[in-house]
Design a protein that fits this description.
Radius of gyration: 23 Å
Shape: globular
Largest sheet: 8 strands, antiparallel
Structural class: alpha+beta
CATH architecture: Beta Barrel
Order of helices and strands: HEEEEEHEEE
Distance between the termini: 59 Å
CATH class: Mainly Beta
Low-confidence stretches: 3-26
Length: 154
Amino acid sequence: MTRRIARVGAILAAAVLVAACSASSSPSAPTAPASLPGTSWTLGLQGGTAPAARALPTLVFGKDGSVSGFTGCEPYAGTFTANGASLTIASLVKTPTSNPCAPTDEATATAFLTALGGVTGWSTQVVPAASGIRVLQPVKLLLNGPTALVLTLQ
């Protein structure tokens, strides 16, 4: 009888351990990066409006103070300086490509680079998932300046 109780106790303990392990392996809530270097973003909204380009502009913050990406039309590069919530993006230069840009894409590219050049600050926001609904881009980068930019973490 004592062996049977010990066996049942061991089975119950194993079941509790398995349940605890499976509960802790559930996906964790997304977290926003504490700093910008080493992060990559895709434009979601510019001045409250979705970009009209066929390819969405991107923004990559290098660990060396560089910034680069795609304007929706052609590659670009520059530099950035971040100090707390303050952010400056400067020296932005487009790299011309052999393919001409469509007028809509060129307009998006010009507006995007102009907005980046006016950035004065940054913050991040984690978009909470509604009950049972998965948010595809849960982390947003908010760039402040004359034209607000909202980007999503890649």
